[in-house]
Amino acid sequence: MKCVKPLLLASVLATTASVQANDLNQVIDKSNAINESAQKTQTKINSISDSMQSRLQTFKTLNKEIDGLAVYNAQLDKQIKNQLDEMSAINASMDQVSVIERQITPLMLRMITGLEQFVALDVPFLSQERATRVETLKNMMERADVTSSEKFRRVVEAYQVEVDYGRTIEAYTSLLDVDGQEREVDFLRIGRLELLYVTKDGSHAGSWNQAAQKFVAVDDTAISQINKGLRIARKQLAPDMLTLPVHASK
């Protein structure tokens, strides 16, 4: 009986050790399972965090785009408003076009008549050329294939030509009745201040007298000055002082 107790004690100890080992294994397994679950949970958390960061960045980007679109739309609204205002102004102008055209035609006719009278009363230089210009304008006014704007442009252009005559010097050749005989002469026009002529042989020269409405003879001493003026007008001589007879205006 004395030898039975040690064996029983050893058996109890072995059983206890086995139970403890099983419990420890279970604890370890549970700990590993918890760790694996924690790792999986952390992985999910990291994935959710990354997704949230990406969505937050996308949200910020979209907000910036929305702000930009708001500014762009506001600018477009201003442009559209301006365009609508311009369209309204254009429509109003178009409504008045027919009225303006009816008014501009009588104005042009009066301008042409005034130009014709002016040429007739002016110093008689380039008489045929200027009369032809007026006649061309009168014929143009009857044409339907020329727009009103083009007609007005040509009338104004004719006026500008007449204005330019008053501040230029010119030499040209034409026929003139000299002492009852038609002769070829050189004319010298100095603005509208003076119109002179000299025959080709230099034997006769004259100056236009606006008050008398005719050419009057000038002294032979003026012929050299007229020839000098002709050369200056033809750019054959540098500009220089001229001594010429001038008929004072009344």
Structural commentary:
- This protein has helices at residues 4-121, 127-140, 148-165, 223-233, and strands spanning 169-178, 181-190, 194-199, 205-209, 214-217.
- With 250 residues, it is of the alpha+beta class.
- It has two domains: 71-165; 169-250, no CATH class.
- A hairpin with a 5-residue loop joins strand 3 (194-199) and strand 4.
- Helix 1 packs across helix 2 (127-140), helix 1 packs across helix 3 and helix 2 packs antiparallel against helix 3 (148-165).
Q: What is the overall number of helices?
A: 4
Shape: rod-shaped
Strand ordering within the main sheet: 1-2-3-4-5
Measure the end-to-end span: 176 Å
Mean pLDDT: 85
Radius of gyration: 55 Å
- How are helices and strands ordered from N to C? HHHEEEEEH
Task: Supply the helix-strand structural class.
Answer: alpha+beta
How many beta strands in the DSSP annotation? 5
How many domains, as an integer? 2
- The fraction of residues assigned to DSSP E strands is 5-15%
Major sheet description: 5 strands, antiparallel
Uncertain spans: none
Helix content: 55-70%
GO biological process, one term: vesicle-mediated transport
Organism: Pseudoalteromonas aurantia
Keywords: Signal
Protein name: DUF3450 domain-containing protein
